[in-house]
């Protein structure tokens, strides 16, 4: 029996009713990065993904295509697997809910719950969305249609899909029986759901008002797992689908060794639109079966466009294949994992994508590698000197920064905060670039012929840069599949078949005498901004389905932008003395909560470098529905604004943010900036 630490991570299983887009891809890339990271820590990893293949919608799609359900599905699953191969997804198992072993296990699960009295037969009457495979009460709908007498005749689910009235015999799961237990579990396991706001939302909207029993079978569709002994019922998609996380490990089968080894899951990743099923129904189902619950369920946000969530009906979809073909896999994976704040939505724009590639990858990382290799070739005949430290006034600080950033990287990636983990990596990149400017190797090289101290200092600088780059390449492995190997090759380092271990990673691990390549090549060429922004914008316009419905909205938005543009043009110019009156400081957010009397305000407590905490109210609740994502962030504030009362609370300043096309983003400063620092 292996004594290795285990790590089990899952994605939701995808519904193969259409082509997956960039937003769908994010979850799987996120899970892959976590799986790769834990493998590089020498842990025993099991990474599960797959497809949810039952339900009325699949049946309709197959009928429209003039084929059988399984023939339709086989083609869709091939496309999904091809996409995961393209994206470098290193899953250990791909489960299909049409797999024979899964279907048999689902029937056993249903029978056990029925025998226990957790499932009973009744009559369902209510509103159902075929597209979502979900039942809704009137209060849960985003929009309700009524006739002239006020009677409800239809509506829209939160997803935007139409619901229809159905009445049929159904089996029900007694969710209400376990409501109190679930509330107690939440209280005793505060980190079970991340971010915490997801748990609070479920409590307020579904559990505390009275958790309703869940209809778990259908009779109007026969494409699903039949109920044992009552085959006119098929087991409703959510009981069927949720079970995949344990059936994939051999639950209730002849070989359940994987279940014993890997369950409970360490992390289960889901999009926020299906959080309810995973943090209410799934825990109750597991508890009723006598199984432990996952250690953590993360309900991440959406990758949205400027005009909202990616949607074919809006015609604003980006497909990962198009971006990868032009910019390479690493650039796309990096963008997804760097641009999505933990738990919150990320906004995709062509400008932001190109900027990330040019500034982060080409300028910061690419130039550091190119300059280092060139200087080692020029000053040391291509041979990396032995690592020593203390030869310049800046060696020790670089050593400490690299050590600190490696620690932060491990903390963040260990909790699947990839954007923060990558910020830690770029903390090393930025510090190494600054180190070059501080030590001026070209000056040391001129002196080194006659000054032994200068020669020793030059060799120390070059060894430090090579060591920092090796550490950066190692930390990038979970995110990028190609660049780390390319960086190792340019540094003349051997890249192990299973990757570079992240255990005890440090700056001093480059073997002395290693010979770099004679001429390094840019691994991330700089992009032409205007040309590439136009190209990516054209990718969005390729998907024309639904664009007609968006024309009026686009026209309205264009008119608003014109008004804003004219307003900016007519703003009065100010003198330097006017600006000099404004005191802008860096401050770290230490607490964040909604203001009860307001639908717009968030109350922040900040450390501004003084002895007294500062309180600022900001009307950004619409854009930060989970304000805790800003905890620990350093932001810019206007510090000398006169205090004012807002919704009964005192606000002592203003947090600076950026706004474009109706999207507001708080201006987050680099972590190296200390609270209380002045900004000019």
Secondary-structure topology with pairs:
Blueprint: E1 6-10, H1 22-40, E2 44-51, H2 56-65, H3 69-86, E3 93-96, H4 100-115, E4 119-129, E5 134-136, E6 143-146, E7 152-156, E8 162-173, H5 179-188, E9 193-194, H6 196-207, E10 214-215, E11 217-218, E12 226-227, E13 230-235, H7 237-242, H8 244-247, H9 257-262, E14 267-271, H10 275-289, E15 297-300, E16 303-305, E17 308-309, H11 320-327, H12 329-339, E18 346-347, H13 350-380, H14 395-414, H15 418-439, H16 441-447, H17 452-476, H18 483-490, H19 529-542, H20 547-569, H21 576-580, E19 584-594, E20 602-607, E21 614-618, E22 634-638, E23 644-646, E24 649-651, E25 654-655, E26 657-660, E27 663-666, E28 668-669, E29 678-679
Parallel strand pairs: 1-2, 1-14, 2-3, 9-15, 14-15, 16-18
Antiparallel strand pairs: 4-5, 4-8, 6-7, 7-8, 8-10, 11-13, 12-13, 16-17, 19-20, 19-22, 19-29, 20-21, 22-25, 22-28, 23-24, 26-27
Helix pairs in contact: 2-3, 6-10, 11-12, 13-15, 13-17, 13-19, 14-15, 14-17, 15-17, 16-17, 17-18
How is this structure best described in words?
GO terms for molecular function: methionine-tRNA ligase activity. Homodimer. Is required not only for elongation of protein synthesis but also for the initiation of all mRNA translation through initiator tRNA(fMet) aminoacylation. It is an enzyme of class 6 (ligase). A hairpin with a 5-residue loop joins strand 7 (about 150-155) and strand 8. By secondary structure, the protein is of the alpha+beta class. Strands 19, 20, 21, 22, 25, 28 and 29 form a 7-stranded antiparallel beta sheet that branches. The chain has a 6-stranded parallel beta sheet with strand order 3-2-1-14-15-9, with helices on both faces. Helix 11 crosses helix 12 (about 330-340).
């Amino acid at each position: 029996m292996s004594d290795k630490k285990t790590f089990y991570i899952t994605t939701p299983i995808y519904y193969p009713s259409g082509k997956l887009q960039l937003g769908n891809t994010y979850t799987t890339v996120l899970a892959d990065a976590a799986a790769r990271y834990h493998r590089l820590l020498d842990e025993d990893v099991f990474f599960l993904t797959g497809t949810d293949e039952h339900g009325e919608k699949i049946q309709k799609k197959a009928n429209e295509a003039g084929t059988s359900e399984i023939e339709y599905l086989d083609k869709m699953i091939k496309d999904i697997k091809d996409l995961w191969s393209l994206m470098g997804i290193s899953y250990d198992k791909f489960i299909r809910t049409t797999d024979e072993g899964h279907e048999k296990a689902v029937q056993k699960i249903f029978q056990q719950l029925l025998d226990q009295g957790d499932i009973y037969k009744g009559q369902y009457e209510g509103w159902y969305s075929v597209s979502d495979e979900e039942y809704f009460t009137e209060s849960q709908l985003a929009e309700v249609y009524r006739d002239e007498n006020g009677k409800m005749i239809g509506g829209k689910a939160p997803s935007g899909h139409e619901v229809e009235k159905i009445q049929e015999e159904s089996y029900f799961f007694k969710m209400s029986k376990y409501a109190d237990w679930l509330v107690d579990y939440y209280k005793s396991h505060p980190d079970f759901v991340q971010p915490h706001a997801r748990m609070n939302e479920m409590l307020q909207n579904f559990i505390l008002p009275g958790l309703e029993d869940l209809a778990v079978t259908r009779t109007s569709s026969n494409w699903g797992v039949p109920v044992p002994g009552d085959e006119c019922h098929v087991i409703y998609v959510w009981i069927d689908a949720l079970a995949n996380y344990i059936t994939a490990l051999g639950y209730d089968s002849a070989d359940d060794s994987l279940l014993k080894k890997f369950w409970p899951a360490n992390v289960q990743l889901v999009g926020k639109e299906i959080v309810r099923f995973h943090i209410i129904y799934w825990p109750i189902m597991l508890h009723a079966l006598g199984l432990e619950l996952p250690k953590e369920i993360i309900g991440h946000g959406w990758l949205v466009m400027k005009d909202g969530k990616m949607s074919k009906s809006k015609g604003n979809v980006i497909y990962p294949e198009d971006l990868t073909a032009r910019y390479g896999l690493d650039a796309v994976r990096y963008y997804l994992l760097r641009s999505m704040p933990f738990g919150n939505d990320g906004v995709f724009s062509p400008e932001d994508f190109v900027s990330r590639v040019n500034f982060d990858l080409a300028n910061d990382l690419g130039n550091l590698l190119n300059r280092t290799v060139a200087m080692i070739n020029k000053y040391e005949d291509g041979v990396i000197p032995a690592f020593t430290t203390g030869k310049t006034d800046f060696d020790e600080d670089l050593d400490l920064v690299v050590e600190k950033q490696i620690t932060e990287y491990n903390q963040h990636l260990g909790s699947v905060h990839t954007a923060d983990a990558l910020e830690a990596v770029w903390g090393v990149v930025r510090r190494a670039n600054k180190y070059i400017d501080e030590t001026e190797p070209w000056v040391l090289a001129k002196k080194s012929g006659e000054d032994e101290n200068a020669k020793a200092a030059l060799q120390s600088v070059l060894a430090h840069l090579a060591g920092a780059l090796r550490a950066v390449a190692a930390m990038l492995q979970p995110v990028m599949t190609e660049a780390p190997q390319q960086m190792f090759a340019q540094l003349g380092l051997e890249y192990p078949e299973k990757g570079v271990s992240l255990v005890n990673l440090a700056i001093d691990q480059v073997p002395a005498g290693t010979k770099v390549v004679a001429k390094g090549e840019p691994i991330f060429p700089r992009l032409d901004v205007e040309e590439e922004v136009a190209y990516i914008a054209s990718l969005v316009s390729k998907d024309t389905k639904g664009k007609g419905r968006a024309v009026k909205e686009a026209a309205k938005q264009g008119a608003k932008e014109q008004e804003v543009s004219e307003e900016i043009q007519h703003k009065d110019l100010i003198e330097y003395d006017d600006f000099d009156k404004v005191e802008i400081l860096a401050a770290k957010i230490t607490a964040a909560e909604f203001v009860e009397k307001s639908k717009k305000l968030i109350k922040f407590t900040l450390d501004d470098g003084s002895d007294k905490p500062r309180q600022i109210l900001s009307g950004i609740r619409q854009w930060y529905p989970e304000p805790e994502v800003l905890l620990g962030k350093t932001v810019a504030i206007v510090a000398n604004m006169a205090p004012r009362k807002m919704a009964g609370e005192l606000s002592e300043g203003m947090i600076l943010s950026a706004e474009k096309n109706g999207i507001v983003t708080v201006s987050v400063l680099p972590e190296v900036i200390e609270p209380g620092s002045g900004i000019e």
